[in-house]
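FORM 7B: Structural annotation worksheet

SECTION A. Query
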Amino acid sequence: MEGLIPKLEPVQHVSSNPNLYVSAENPLFKNYFAGPMVIEVIVADPDIQRLDQSYGEPVVTVNGKRLRMAQATDGNWYGYFADRNQAIAAANTAVLTGKGLNFGGFCDPGSTFSPKPGVSYSETKGFTIARGGFGSKNDTNNGGAKISPSNFVLCTNNPGTLTTNQMEHVIRENKTLNTNTGGFAASTEYENAWPIIQLYDFSSIPTPVTVDYQKSGGDQIVNLIFDRIPSNLIHVYAARPDFPQGSQVQGDLLDPQLNIDPTSEDSWTWGASITNNTLYYMAFGRDGQPDADGTPAMQNLIGNLTTFMFNHNGRLTENPNPQGVVVAKQQSNGIQTLFADNNGFMRTRSISAFSVPITVSELTPNSGIFSDYDQGGIADIVIKNDAPRDKSFTATYNDRTYSVVVKFHTATLTMG
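SECTION B. Predicted structure
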């Protein structure tokens, strides 16, 4: 289907419970989540919020299985979970510590590792820790050996050789644990392992997922759906129906499946060429400077889309000259860093100009709303100053093609 990009002013969601927040709860996306998305669960309960008082851990379950919670320095309690098979598939694309879809070190649910007396992850299908150590398995510290459920390892409280930097890269802005000895008293082991992502099996899709905070006085529940994202929940919007010469081509992409990290803005970069289509996670950081770009961590994920449960979404292509005339050009901005090649065309360190690099960055953490422009309104794409009227370029996402048409506008001002 082809048409002009419409305009929408999207809004973010709020929690349906007074004390339980689940990052995937969002009426805009009907509470769907998919693929290697990490789900953040927060218990913000004033009854158990003081930092200098010891409380029993709030009981939170995921489909009846315990989700272990830890108190942070803001007084709230945090837990993270994901689908086991999707976490493994994502982690096996990560070749560098702290880059790409690195989930950290994998541990078997039967592990003796316990960051706090009485804390066990035996009700999960495994868990990951942020820093390599404790005997955990990750293909960046195990000679490139790929991870599978059959080779999860039994982690222990012996840290062994810890990685210098955080290995996990899918929770980048987690809260710091409360180490107050009169309160939660997080141990050094807990700090080194945090954040811990607990893994469950949602492979029989569609899978209803119930997150339940068993608060005295009544349970607080959020119901999610783990499945491929319905196409009618994915949209592309723009600030205007057509674009004059020299204008910024600003567009918003609403796709919850691109929201991997619930704590920080995610970034995705395509080589949008129809003949050489590629896709990269966190090629650039939140400041637009290279993260994976230019390193071995720049792993092309376009061939992993089916594995990651993408349906028609995930693939972005651009036809720069459907009428035989190029009307727009790529440019560097606050979400991607480009430079001119020997022919004057714009490229990244890893993506050539002929592959047409386009980046979208999440507007706010956990929104699922992505833009191709920075805070100053500078977009990845700008209409050329000599672009002919009524010519266009097209972009295709989620099996829908959108036309960006050049128009000239005049106005008359009468002063009296």
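SECTION C. Observations
The mean pLDDT is 93. The first strand starts at residue 2 and ends at 4.

SECTION D. Sign-off
Analyst initials: ____
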